[in-house]
Design brief:
This protein is mainly alpha-helical and 142 residues long. It is 42% helix and 6% strand. It has helices at residues 4-18, 27-31, 85-93, 110-140, and strands at 38-41, 58-61. Strands 1-2 form a two-stranded parallel sheet. The longest helix is centred in the C-terminal third of the chain and has 31 residues, at 110-140. The two termini are 61 Å apart.
Length: 142
Amino acid sequence: MKSLTTQAVSAAAVLGAAFGGMTIASPATAQAVTTPPLVIYGNQKCPTDANGNEIVVCVRRAPGEQFRIPKELRELKVTPENESWASKAAANDRVGQDGIGSCSNVGAGGATGCFAQAGRAYKKQKQENKAEQRAVEAAIVP
């Protein structure tokens, strides 16, 4: 019968082989883990330990933002799912128009409206691309 320490060493060797020689994280490696800053609102205090020795990184935001969806999670791009009813109704006002500036195949000058509509879509796409590029650059630069 094997002694308890021999069994423990054997079990450790088997586990080490089973997990591909994974090593246990040293304290220096564990300290490299970064935590996101704590968000506080209004006059709230940044928490510390009882002696005030612990350093906690806090980000202060306006008190009115406390019960809102965080800015990072808000959907800023208008998609058909989150488009306002007012803009949907305004789009319905243009249905069935014909003539100059209408983008229809009926009437004189319907093509001018199609050109203007394509130009507005192009301008909007360029603005969205610039905004996305600024967001990427802001995320890359520390």
